[in-house]
Amino acid sequence: MRRPRTKLFLSIITALTILVAAICFADAIPEQITINKIQKYYDPVVFNHGNHISALQDCSLCHHHTADGQVSNQNCVRCHKNSGAQPVVGCQGCHAADPFSSTAIKQMGRQQPPVYHRDQPGLKAAYHQQCLGCHQEMGMPTDCQDCHARNDSGDALFKSGKYAPVKTRP
Question: What is the per-residue pLDDT for 67?
């Protein structure tokens, strides 16, 4: 008879711990996030984090490692199941902005065995996989310009806007 009570007690303690963590981290949860890793070619994206929290109500849908310390990505759980709460749960905490830089390659153990994080996408790919996949499922905007307003340097690179080739008649 004691085992069901023990399970109930542990469930209550777990729920209270999550509630306390949510209250403690509530002030640290940003309402908006500015994503500016590609500002050389695009204006920064102002991500309305608050709207997404209200609509989704489950942080682990986007964050593989949430503030309460639970790793939800099954690939990550293999090694990080006991890694505990993380001070930063943003994408850039695990995904390198430039995954092909020598620093990122060394940090991910790609130069010498054992080889870990080979399948971990860079920051740009992580954003796009997470955001576009969800937006496609929910019928939300998915065109590049829906989120990214190209700036003058971007127009020059992609030969658009005032840099677009002038069509001449033959």
Answer: 59
CATH of the domain at 91: 3.90.10.10
C-alpha 114/C-alpha 92 separation (Å) is 23
Q: Is residue 169 part of a domain?
A: no
Q: Token pair of 90, please?
A: 């943003």
- What type of residue is 107? Q
Residue 94 located in a structural domain: yes
Amino acid at 84: G
In Å, how far are 53, 80, 142, 155 from 116, measured between CA atoms?
31, 12, 31, 38
pLDDT category, 122, cuts 50, 70, 90? confident
**DSSP category for residue 7:** H
Q: Would the pLDDT of 131 be above 90?
A: no
Query: Which residues form the domain of 25?
Result: 1-30
Three-state SS string over 140-156 comes to CCCCHHHHCCECHHHHH
How many Å is the Cα radius of gyration of the chain?
Answer: 21
The pTM is what? 0.59
